[in-house]
What does this fold into?
Amino acid sequence: MQDVTPSHARSLPLQNPLGHLVTPANAFARHFDETYATVHQQFDLILFLDGNEQQGRSVVAGTEAFRSSWKRPKWHIHYHNKGELMARIVYGVSGEGDGHSSRARVVLEHLCRQGHQVKVVTYDRGIKNLGSDFDIFESVGLHIVSRNNKVAPLETLLNNLQKIPEGITRLQVLLY
It folds into this structure.
């Protein structure tokens, strides 16, 4: 089969979260920034609406703002409407058993009362115990395998090693 892609075709950096080829917004902005004003520049900026979280609105911004937008931290501290410092927090909770989520609930409630935005990363029992009250991101959980009321170390290790690739893929969705 012959490649019929024109030599002037656009190309963007593709990523594969959860089996779908996509170019996340930050990857597009980074590509634009790195190729800007070079022979490799593929796009011209027409309009950039930059979200301003402090004001709760979007503002028209220029090329330099767009070029630097990919460098912003994904989870950054900003100010709440009343002027007090507020954070975006990713809080991981083990979903094995009920104890972790029970103790985490007290901390999570406190953080939310303080005005922080909290994303809870958990699985299994953590979702069951916290899912109706908090913003949940379902992760792949690690589990302890037991046989005859004893931990089976090799089975536990092998079982959990198999879950790592899917876990990494899911967390990449959270980060992008």
